[in-house]
Design the sequence.
């Protein structure tokens, strides 16, 4: 009797599965409908609106997110980003105060779904003792699960993952996960309202040095389902580029990659050589520049703009460095001073100019964005309700700011080292996959550390302040180039039309700066930070060449601030006073808010936690935005006429 | 032709499909005996392995690479069958849990993907209109003042009023509420909700930037669009909201066939 029932059950299961496949919407048909809807979205003549998004979000499909306890998938992630309420894995209800305009779910391609499979595998099929141990830990308790995940990350970094884990017949499960994922995001993509882009994270990690990239596609199911996410472990970045080239060639689609957490690459992210240590070739530089037009400058695991060692004259360079600067991703190898150059974006932009002088191609001509890298399926970068890096430190873990957060196994970083995470801002003509992707491709994007300040910059020649009396945005596009653009040297100093509006629901602005980097004829480089406009300029007069501090209204006992200092908007026309004819340079804008409480201070007040002395010292910060640079260089020779 | 009502029951579909598959398997016989000791990796299976490798790596595998993939496949299959032979699939809490959750998944999908027809979605739309309503839309002109006092004084003085400079649009037409909120702040959008359109300057209204005099020229409440325009969205919402209920439904269908006694 039991056996018959068993067979009956099996038949029912198979029938259900068959029925499901039979009745399922045809995702290819849905793709055609989506393309039609996208084509119907009205576009403005030039980008009039900035769109906010997160390009770096992990769900339960990521092996580490699962290990950290996350059980929310893509659907919850999308619903949350669109502004709907979801219940987090730990049972906390969460809703974004302000929805996002676009989202890239970027689960790790390595071991996609692997921890779930390891946790659920029959124990005796696991031949490796380490895997048996992890299997047990994953099933034992959330604490043990977290520990197992840290050990697995460390093993991946050290290259000691058991063969069975690396070589498990992964393509089958990955194919299923990927296909289902792509169909889901197509269902949630709403041209004109909310854009869901396909992507994954390529997690190259030689020796624990972080060389991760988020890979983002422009296309829908019909193209993206013709490939699988490319695994990172035991590959070279050139293999990723080859994969991207093959994708574009075989499908006619487009794809780009965005490096992140260069701060923990121990000098490898922005090397002056190729990845094997040999001198960089023009071809290598060209491939890097064309496939990696944007870099993620800031996220939960620290800020990668620059480091006080590299920029000793920049008094704001220390933001988001504590903890992260001690070593590589799993802190298995300490970071030394000579590694810093390859770790940070400003230095990379300078190296790019120097390499361009030798090779004729700039490998590091990239734009900047921020994102979260949240592993909770919840894309939020807000300080006042920080949702944690991963499920183990969601707000239900009340003392999370003070406790050590071991990503690897050897050295501690602390909860307060985490930033709340940033956002990506894209200037686009409409909210569609094509428009958002193309904004990234032409680098008309910028990074913020969470607040949604609106930042514009145009570079050109002969800009004057009276342009602000008219339609200066239109004039900026007509007479100059926006952020991310190239300006051909006209033998005179370039000028910049800059406007920064505060986050309408956030803090006032302290100052706007222009960061300039340049290359000298001998290949050496230089940098300088200019304060170009700040609040209360009449009162805050330069002292010793410096703008005096804006002040600080943060009440440490209540985690509040007031907008009684700073300004709602700062705008100016700035002309480079140190222009040298023939010198290649880049200019990007950095906007600083007035000091506001960090998530750690909000936590302390909300939960009645006493912060450690170190944590308290870092509990107030000046949030910021970084725009993509505008490059100034020799006018490119006009393209030879081709037969047409 | 109209079919009787019972033909529309998901349970009937479910059982009919099950019966069909049962007949099919009875006819073609057992596909593979997992306890047998012969493994054939057919050309079709090899092609599948090669294709998956190619999709990941962007090029076809070399003969050696393909051979290695096939070896791996065979190794897993051998170990899997030996494990079955040893009965490792029984008395293993994790396997039990895994298979139970697979059933859950299948039952839920079966119930879920009985494609909701328009009437189901229409009902859903009518039950939850606010979830799908278009944004309210506003047309307005605004003048900015950093301080409330100055805005109030300018309004009282009347005549040709001039605001202070800021990079915000002086005039918006047909702007959805979420865009107004994103640009001016939520307080400002909420204030517009309360104003009536008219030819006069109103305010001062507070925004994230300061104070504004507003001439509200146009105000449209968000309409609930017809189902055809928001079908996918309604379907997404319906699916995700009813998934859990459907899982339970699937379970109850199976549960009813059991006689369960819990001894005291």
Sequence:
């Amino acid at each position: 009797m039991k056996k018959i029932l068993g067979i009956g059950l099996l038949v029912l299961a198979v029938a259900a599965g068959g029925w499901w496949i039979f009745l399922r919407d045809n995702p290819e048909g849905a793709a055609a409908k989506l393309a039609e809807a996208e084509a119907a979205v009205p576009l403005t003549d030039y980008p009039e609106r900035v769109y906010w998004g997160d390009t770096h979000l992990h769900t339960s499909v990521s092996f580490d997110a699962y290990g950290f306890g996350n059980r929310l998938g893509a659907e919850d992630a999308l619903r949350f980003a669109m502004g709907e309420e979801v219940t987090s894995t730990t049972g906390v209800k969460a809703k974004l105060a302000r929805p996002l305009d676009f989202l890239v779910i970027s689960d790790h391609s390595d071991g996609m779904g692997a921890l779930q499979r390891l946790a659920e595998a029959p124990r005796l099929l696991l031949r490796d003792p380490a895997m048996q141990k992890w299997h047990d830990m994953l099933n034992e308790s959330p604490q043990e699960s977290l520990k197992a995940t840290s050990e697995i990350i460390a093993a991946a970094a050290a290259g000691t993952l058991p063969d069975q884990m690396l070589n498990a017949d992964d393509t089958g499960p990955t194919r299923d996960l990927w296909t289902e994922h792509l169909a889901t995001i197509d269902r949630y993509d709403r041209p004109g309202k909310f854009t869901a882009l396909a992507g994954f994270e390529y997690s190259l990690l030689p020796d624990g040095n972080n060389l991760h990239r988020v890979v983002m596609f422009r296309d829908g199911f019909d193209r993206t389902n013709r490939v699988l996410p490319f695994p990172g472990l035991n590959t070279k970045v050139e293999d990723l580029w080859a994969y991207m080239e093959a994708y574009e060639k075989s499908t006619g689609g487009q794809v780009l990659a965005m490096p992140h957490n260069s701060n923990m690459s121990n000098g490898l992210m922005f090397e002056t050589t190729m990845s094997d240590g040999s001198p960089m070739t023009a071809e290598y530089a060209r491939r890097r520049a064309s496939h990696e037009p944007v870099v993620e400058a800031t996220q939960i695991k620290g800020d990668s703009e620059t480091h006080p060692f590299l920029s000793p004259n920049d008094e704001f360079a220390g933001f988001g460095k504590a903890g992260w600067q001690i070593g590589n991703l799993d802190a298995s190898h300490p970071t030394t001073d000579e590694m810093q150059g390859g770790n940070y974006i400003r230095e990379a932009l300078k190296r790019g100019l120097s390499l361009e002088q030798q090779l004729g191609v700039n490998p590091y001509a990239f734009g900047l964005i921020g994102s979260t890298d949240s592993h909770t399926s919840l894309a939020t970068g807000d300080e006042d309700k920080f949702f944690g890096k991963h499920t183990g430190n969601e707000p239900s873990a009340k003392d999370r700011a003070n406790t050590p957060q071991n990503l690897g196994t050897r050295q501690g970083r602390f909860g307060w080292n985490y930033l709340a995470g940033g956002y990506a801002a894209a200037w686009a003509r409409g909210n569609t996959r094509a428009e958002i992707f193309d904004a990234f491709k032409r680098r008309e994007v910028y990074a913020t550390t969470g607040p949604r300040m609106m930042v514009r910059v145009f570079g050109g020649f002969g800009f004057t302040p009276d342009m602000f009396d008219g339609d200066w945005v239109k004039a900026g596009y007509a007479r100059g180039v926006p952020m991310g653009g190239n300006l051909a040297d006209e033998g005179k100093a370039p000028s910049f039309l800059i406007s920064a509006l505060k986050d309408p629901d956030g803090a006032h602005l302290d100052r706007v700066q222009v960061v300039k980097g340049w290359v000298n004829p001998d290949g050496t480089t230089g940098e300088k930070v200019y304060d170009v406009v700040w609040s209360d300029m009449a009162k805050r007069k330069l002292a010793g060449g410096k703008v005096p501090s804006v002040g600080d209204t943060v009440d440490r006992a209540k985690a509040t601030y007031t907008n009684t200092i700073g300004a709602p908007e700062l705008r100016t026309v700035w002309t480079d006073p140190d222009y040298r004819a023939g010198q290649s340079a880049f200019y990007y804008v950095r906007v600083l808010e007035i000091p506001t409480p960090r998530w750690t201070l909000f936590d302390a007040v909300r939960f009645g936690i006493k912060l450690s002395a170190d944590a308290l010292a870092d509990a107030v910060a000046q949030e910021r935005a970084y725009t993509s640079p505008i490059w100034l260089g020799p006018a490119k020779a006009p393209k030879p006429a081709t037969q047409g | 032709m109209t079919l009787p009502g019972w033909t529309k029951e998901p349970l009937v579909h479910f059982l009919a499909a099950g019966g069909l598959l049962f007949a099919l398997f009875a006819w073609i016989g057992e596909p593979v005996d997992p306890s047998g000791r012969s493994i054939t990796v057919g050309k079709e299976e090899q092609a599948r392995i090669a294709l998956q490798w190619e999709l990941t790596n962007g090029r076809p595998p070399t003969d050696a690479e393909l051979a290695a993939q096939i070896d791996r496949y065979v190794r897993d299959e051998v170990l899997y069958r030996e494990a079955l032979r040893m009965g490792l699939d029984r008395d293993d809490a994790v396997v039990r849990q895994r298979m139970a959750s697979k059933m859950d998944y299948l039952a839920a999908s079966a119930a879920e993907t009985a494609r909701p027809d328009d009437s189901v979605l229409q009902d859903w739309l009518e039950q939850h209109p606010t979830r799908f309503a278009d944004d309210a839309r506003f047309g307005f002109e605004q003048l900015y003042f950093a301080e409330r006092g100055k805005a109030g004084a300018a309004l009282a003085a009347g005549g040709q009023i001039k605001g202070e400079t800021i990079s915000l649009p002086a005039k918006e037409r047909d702007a959805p509420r979420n865009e107004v909120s994103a640009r001016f702040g939520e307080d400002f959008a909420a204030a517009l909700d309360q104003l009536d359109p008219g030819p006069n300057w109103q305010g001062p209204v507070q925004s994230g930037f300061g104070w504004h005099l507003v001439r509200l020229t146009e105000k449209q409440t968000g309409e609930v669009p017809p189902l055809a325009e928001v079908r996918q969205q309604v379907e997404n919402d319906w699916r995700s909201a009813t998934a859990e209920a459907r899982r339970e439904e699937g379970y109850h269908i199976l549960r009813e066939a059991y006689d369960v006694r819990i001894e005291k």
About this structure: The longest strand of chain B covers residues 211-220.
